[in-house]
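Could you show me just one protein sequence together with its fold in token form as a worked example?
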Amino acid sequence: MTFKPHLLLCLMSVSLVTHADNRALLVGIDEYKYINELIGSKQDVENMSQFIQSEWGYQPAQIRTLTDAQATRSHILSTIDNWLIRDTRRGDKVLFYYSGHGTYVKDKWPHDEKDGSDEALCPVNTTLTRDNLIRDDEIHERLKKLEGRQVTLIIDACHSGTMTKSVSFSSDQRTVKTPIFRRPLPRQTTKSAFTRETFVNTQRHVVAYSAVAPDDVALVDTHVNPREGVFTRRFIEGIRDKYADSNYDGKVSHHELLAYTRRESQAYCDKSRYQCRQGLTPQLEIK
């Protein structure tokens, strides 16, 4: 057999081209098909895409975005499975970002929730009867398949048992990231946004930020144009503009960023009582 060095070089080139060190999936939904619409989620995705390119070194070819009609349950899950899991290796950086509605539903087998409810993301085809949700258990199983990668999870969404009451605080229902369903679940099943017990439990390779704490609702910033998520805006500016660098060492740690987003989110809440009655307390889970 004749050795062909040019063929080896071609194969090496293909390998280098097809493997990306970093992968990001950004999901933002404003125009829901069946439940109440939002504003600002697509803008959040655009802002996050620019941010991870300028600050975290992502290349355009390493980023996938799903917005509005693209962001169905099946499309989100298949993109996680193929783009984030199948096409990455140990040591790679993986980012999943979601801006849109979040909710909770009655816990399914294996009944691992202490309060009997699962947190869930609301894809664009979520129905008034809570069909087509993506439960936290489904995300949890996929996070386990990303072991060995450096995973960042950023969720700008909410869960609240008093859904219709929460929405009524605002003059514009599109600025509160809580869906209005046909039948709200009982108040006692209220859960927080992706708490340790359910969403990132035992996931040592995952850093997870969420916009709100138990009983909070995630909000859209109505003081800026175009509209943006309150949490996403402060997350980005805390790092990009070094606003979160409290010790002035030129770097922003996770704890500095958490403190900044909490302080600034609550400051927004304090001056927007027509929209925010429960407080805003971003969460961080890191091991």
